[in-house]
Amino acid sequence: MAEEAQQMPRSSYLPRRVAMRGLAAAGAAAMLRPVGAIARPGTIITRPIPSSGEALPVIGLGTWITFNVGEDPAARDACAEVMRHFFDAGGRAIDSSPMYASSQPVIGHGLRKLGRTKEVFSADKVWIRGGSRGPAQIEQSRQYWGVPRFDLMQVHNLVSWEEHLPALLAMKAAGQLRYVGITTSEGRRHREIEQIMRDHPIDFVQVTYNVLDREVEARILPLAQERGIGVIVNRPFRQGVLIRRIERQRLPDWAAEFEAANWAQFLLKFIVSHPAVTCAIPATSRVEHVRENMGAARGRLPDAAMRRRMVAHVEAL
Amino acid sequence: MSEWWTYRLSDFLLFAPRTYYRLFELYNADIWPAQIAALALGVAIVVLLYRGGAGASRGIAAILAAGWLWVAWAFHLERYATINWAAVYFAAGFAVQALLLVWTGVLRGGLRFQAPSGIPGRIGLGVFLFALVMQPLIGPLLGRAWTHAELFGLAPDPTAVATLGALLLANRTRWLLLAIPLLWCAISGATLWTMGAPDWFVSPVLAAAPIGVALWKRS
Ligand SMILES: NC(=O)c1ccc[n+]([C@@H]2O[C@H](COP(=O)([O-])OP(=O)(O)OC[C@H]3O[C@@H](n4cnc5c(N)ncnc54)[C@H](OP(=O)(O)O)[C@@H]3O)[C@@H](O)[C@H]2O)c1
Prior knowledge:
Largest sheet of chain A: 7 strands, parallel
Order of helices and strands of chain A: HHEEHEHEHEHEHEHEHHEHH
CATH superfamily of chain A: NADP-dependent oxidoreductase domain
Number of helices of chain B: 8
Number of domains of chain A: 1
CATH class of chain A: Alpha Beta
Radius of gyration of chain A: 18 Å
Oligomer: heterodimer
Strand order of the largest sheet of chain A: 3-4-5-6-7-8-9
Structural class of chain A: alpha/beta
Number of helices of chain A: 12
Number of strands of chain A: 9
Radius of gyration of chain B: 17 Å
Mean pLDDT of chain B: 93
Low-confidence stretches of chain B: none
Strand content of chain B: under 5%
Low-confidence stretches of chain A: 1-40
Number of strands of chain B: 0
CATH architecture of chain A: Alpha-Beta Barrel
Number of domains of chain B: 1
Mean pLDDT of chain A: 89
CATH topology of chain A: TIM Barrel
Largest sheet of chain B: none
Order of helices and strands of chain B: HHHHHHHH
Bound molecules: NADP nicotinamide-adenine-dinucleotide phosphate
């Protein structure tokens, strides 16, 4: 949709964007409303990208490990099936990196097979030492995905960020990218991340955040709000360890108050109900899991008091 | 890499166990009936060992080298590299090992393999036969499909372990030739351990035996 929007004449593009903003507002309103507010079945919750106002569904799709299936035809088709359910449920943002081996070509296979190249919000990364090698890597990634250009290009784990970031911002200015970001995970190099957020006009920052790993709440999330930077959340399930552990426990009855039907939705709704978060990107290789995860982008979200209760509950388990 | 101490081994595992085993399944299907040839070459090594002589030793080194070169190309470069970018380096390492075997054992005739007489030789033969016959059975015994079996000369682990065993049967310890197989057993052990495979220790333990014996032989 992002690409499509860019190629469409302005007249047809604007109303659509306004419509999307409306949806985003509905999402934000649902979030701010206290628990017990009216659910809006059928609408996917979106958040505006702070730098543009473009609406993005609050649940995206990660591809680390899950989509690295090499050239195995059956496994590639299984990934395409996960993508089909993701898009059918209203999903848009898919995140990958050259670091994830075959994940990029596997995404490309899925996009081609499903004909969803225009719909996807393509979020990829540059991950190579030395700024001079960045453009070639980005071009290679673009060919793997089969998209005309990336929506978002992030500097993976801050690798050579001093060199890549100016190049990415120049690509954005030249219309070769739509958004620029940086990533880290599991609390690494947060000082540097904060400094970059202060000093550079980035659109997105990607960090780890979940009900147990909440370090970013202290500084990075407030800073993102203050600076108008979108936040993409990785490792929502601690690479699966958290959800596999917690799934053995009974889901508390009060999870129904924010319409979480399972633990995946409990964990994801915790993340995306933080007002600074634009979207979370759980990875999965399974259709039933992507459906569960996308369910977190619908219905009510927990309010601040409920979020505190969620933390206390999970920490006590 | 900055803040390297915050990384765990699992941060470097790029694929799911299912994907890793499926790689062997597709590989085995693609190269069939190369498995029969590989087993025959493994048996040929034992025959040459008992025949003895300079020509037989050169033959053994040549077969081992062929196995390393095949794994470098057909496994690491053609298959493993599709799910693990580090496999390009593994392929280079395996090719170097093949060259070292050719240089030392075939061209210069610097390896003299002998049928086992003492304890080191027996351990070496035991390790070699284990890699040839038992190692491919471990996966199926643990409940993985037969089609995933890893064979000497075709898959990296049994090739490395068999080579370590064979090198114990040589008249002198060639440390240079032990280095890459040992390193591979460590890498493979770490990979399988991170994947949660119950048999992760097999190659490292089998590699430890030859290195222990080599050290003992020297002293
Ligand atoms: N530095 C960086 O830039 C960075 C670092 C880390 C991650 N990331 C990005 O963030 C994404 C997400 O992080 P992650 O993949 O590391 O971890 P994650 O999303 O926290 O966890 C993924 C695991 O959760 C399981 N899972 C997913 N949905 C589930 C459900 N509904 N029920 C039960 N299990 C479920 C998956 O297994 P199944 O396949 O069985 O569903 C998978 O093993 C990555 O894929 C990547 O795109 C970026």
